[in-house]
Specification:
The protein has helices at about 1-20, 160-170, and strands at about 25-30, 60, 70-75, 85-95, 100, 115-120, 140-150, 175-185. The protein is of the alpha+beta class. It has one domain (about 25-185): Phosphatidylethanolamine-binding Protein (Alpha-Beta Complex). The radius of gyration is 18 Å and the shape is globular.
């Protein structure tokens, strides 16, 4: 009987410790400010949008103890797809990585650390795909998230979908930090 009561208490304490460790985990960008409009450099250059389609420089610090790798995503929860829109998926970033330069999301990933991989975005590319909401929609939210992971490599096949990569990221997450910006296209 004691172990039935004790197990949930231990689990709760472990979760609280995990959240406390991630409390100082922060994500910043020299070009994107929280809640601000994305610059044209981060806008897609197809589907009627005309931007630079360049991933922004990003920097993070304060990762939880025990971090063995990072994953990075850019997600639009407001996309009218029924499931949002994945704009960028990067995983297997070494634990020593604390920043990415602008255009690290270019096709081929030459500016990423050697072990890092890019999963497919919802444009069908293994690259960064900038903001491009439908004209006339209210401005969409673009959520950059860096996840601290307890594994140095995600166990996913080379052709894994963004959803499968996301599942494995969440299964291995120690903490996360986010930066959200907005973007809209006038009619």
């Amino acid at each position: 009987m004691r172990s039935l009561v004790f197990a949930p208490v231990v689990a709760s304490l472990c979760l609280a410790a995990s959240v406390a460790q991630a409390a100082g985990f922060t994500l910043t960008s020299p070009t994107i400010k929280p809640g601000a409009t994305l610059p044209d450099a981060q806008v897609y250059n197809q589907f009627g949008c005309h931007g630079g389609d360049t991933s922004p420089a990003l920097k993070w610090s304060g990762a939880p103890q025990g971090t063995k790798s990072f994953a990075l995503t850019l997600y639009d929860p407001d996309a009218p797809s029924g499931s949002g829109w994945w704009h960028w998926v990067v995983y297997d970033l070494p634990a020593s990585t604390t920043e990415l330069p602008a255009d690290a999301g270019a096709a081929g990933g030459k500016a990423l650390p050697a072990s890092a991989k890019m999963g497919p975005n919802d444009f069908g590319e293994h690259a960064y795909g900038g903001a491009c909401p439908p004209p006339g929609d209210k401005p969409h939210h673009y959520v950059f998230t860096v996840y601290a992971l307890k594994t140095d490599k995600l166990d996913v096949p080379a052709n894994a979908s963004a959803a499968l990569i996301g599942f494995m990221v969440h299964a291995n997450q120690l903490g996360k930090t986010q930066l959200t910006a907005r973007y809209g296209v006038k009619r």
